Structure prediction request, 310 residues.
Amino acid sequence: MRPSSKVIVSCAITGSIHTPTMSPHLPVSAETIGTQAIDAARAGAAILHLHARVEGTGAPSQKPEDYARFLPRIRDNCDAVVNITTGGGLGMSLEDRLAPALAFAPELASMNMGSLNFNISGAASKIKEFQHDWERPYLEMTQDFILSNTFTQIERGIRALSEQGTRFEYECYDVGHLYNLAHFLDRGLVDGPLFVQGVFGILGGIAAETEHLLHMRRTADRLFGDQYVMSVLAAGRHQMPMAVTNATLGGHVRVGLEDSIYIAKGELAQSNAQQVEKITRILNELSIETATPDEARTMLGLKGAAHVKF
Prediction:
């Protein structure tokens, strides 16, 4: 792995997993997504990982017009790297998932590196009454759901977005996904520095355990040598412990309400910025410096904010 003296903090603002009923603090309108993204950047996030939501219901959306409601505001009020999802909402077509990143040509876009069972149905059983009709069926359908990311789909996304200079946050939910990424590296369709995002704790992917993190890092070392950096995100209660572990090993971190709606045991996070403040405080107390947006751009070989289309 490429050695780094500073840790890149990413913040995933809203995602497509948590639903409005789960937390009153989850940003689901364009106004709150924009506000929380800007506040997270001011709290120390160098990268903002962004999804959009349908106005009024808070359902996941990949319509470019929904992103257009907050992207210019974020651009005008902070200098963080904008990272647009191509994962989108569960069950969306590849065309829908790619649409906003193709429309706005961000510096970064996420790219899932393999198909997997993606089961978040357990969340539905914990809530008696939902605010919106779409929430319960959306969660329950994942009992019989595969998040599709075939080699053909991945290649289509990489080719299309690379043409506009967008680079990738390669989301790896299991060890096999690292080998999938190595396949594309060997074919010359991607190049370093690879920004690998290890995803831990999703039912269907690798569990959030320290030994698994070490195994992922060792495997990536063998496959990529000094051509990559690794960030880590972990679901729910595992968020902070796994992030801190990876940072102490020289890696990078991701927090945000997409990955966990809590700030402590049984305590809902009031905002994305609160999670960013917590991880940066912990890192500072460990004498680990965090990277600025421009330092992150240099580390990841990004094209710069002047070359996006929003």
